[in-house]
Amino acid sequence: MRLSSSLIALVALAGQALALPFNELAERDTGLDVKLIPIGNTRVKAIITNNADHEMSFVKYNTLFDSSPVRKVQISKDGSIIPFSGIHLYYDIDNLPKEAYKTLAPGASAEAEFDIAETSDLSAGGSFKISAEGSIPVIDGQGTKPTSSIRFKANTLTMDIDGEMASKVASAIPELNKRTRVDNQSCTGQYAQLLQGGLRTCVTYAQRAAQAASGGNAQKFQEYFKTTDQQTRQNVARRFQAIAQECSSANQGRTIYFCRDVYGYCKGLSKEINR
C-alpha cells in the first residue's frame, strides 16, 4: 500500500479519555502460545494455541485475530519502525458481545491470515522484520468476563518483500479528505456541541498534564514513566502540549473528527484511526 498523506482521524472523541481496556487485569506469562508464518509476499498467518489444562476464551479485539485493520504486528526495516495506518478499538471489557471472543479447548489452536501491506507502506521493498508481542485478555473456564491477561511474544519473521507488489495492495483505510477537520455531514446539532465540548476538555487536560510532566510531583512521574530524568519529563510535556495544540482548533491540524462510523469497524465500540 502506498500512502500519500499523514493524518489521524478520531471517531467518538470520548474514546480518547478511556484508559487501556484491560490495564487493571492481572497479567501472567503462561497459557497461550502465538506463532507467525509467512504465506505470501506480504501475507502472514498467525496461530494461537491454548497450552493450559482448561478451556480458555480470549478477546480478539486489537489482536492478531481481529478481522478489523488493527495493529497486528510491528514492522521494521534497517532498524527503523514502519508507520502503521489502521485503527485501534476502545471497548468496555465487561460488556463485550459473544463474537468478541474465541474459545479454545486445552491444546486447541486457532488461525488467522492477514496482509501487512493493508496497514503499512511497504513499497520500498527489501528485507523487513515482522514481530508481535503484547497481552491478550482471557476468560478461564466457564467465566463470563475476563479476569486476567496473558503476555505473549511471537517468533520474529524476516520477509523479503517485493515493493511493487506490496504497493498494489489496497489500503484498509481509504484516503480521507484533508480539507476539513470536522465531518459536517454527521457532526451537527447535539453531536457538534458534544464534539466542541470534548475538544475544549482535551485542551484543558493536556495542558494540565504538560504542566505536571514538566514541573509536577517527581514521584508520580516515576510511577508512570519509570524515570525522573529532566529531559524525559520535557519530552513528555512537549507531547502533551502538542495534543493541546491539536485539540485547540476545529479547522486546522492533522486530525479529522467524525460523528459516525465511516468505515463500519466500530461494532458498537469507539475507534481511533491512525494515518
From TrEMBL:
GO biological process, one term: proteolysis
Domain of life: Eukaryota
Main localization, broad class: secreted
EC number, as in UniProt: 3.4.24.39
GO cellular component: extracellular region
Cofactor(s), names only, from the UniProt record: Zn(2+)
Catalytic reaction equation(s): Preferential cleavage of bonds with hydrophobic residues in P1'. Also 3-Asn-|-Gln-4 and 8-Gly-|-Ser-9 bonds in insulin B chain
Subcellular location: Secreted
Keyword Hydrolase: yes
Alphabetical keyword list: Cleavage on pair of basic residues, Disulfide bond, Hydrolase, Metal-binding, Metalloprotease, Protease, Secreted, Signal, Virulence, Zinc, Zymogen
UniProt cofactor note: Binds 1 zinc ion per subunit.
Protein's UniProt keywords contain Secreted: yes
InterPro entries (alphabetical): Fungal_M35_metalloproteases, MetalloPept_cat_dom_sf, Peptidase_M35
Signal peptide per UniProt: 1-19
GO molecular function terms attached to this record: metal ion binding; metalloendopeptidase activity
Pfam families according to UniProt: Peptidase_M35 (PF02102)
Family: Belongs to the peptidase M35 family.
Chain's role: Secreted metalloproteinase that allows assimilation of proteinaceous substrates. Shows high activities on basic nuclear substrates such as histone and protamine. May be involved in virulence.
Name listed for the protein in its UniProt record: Neutral protease 2
Protein source organism: Coccidioides immitis RMSCC 2394
UniProt lineage: Eukaryota, Fungi, Dikarya, Ascomycota, Pezizomycotina
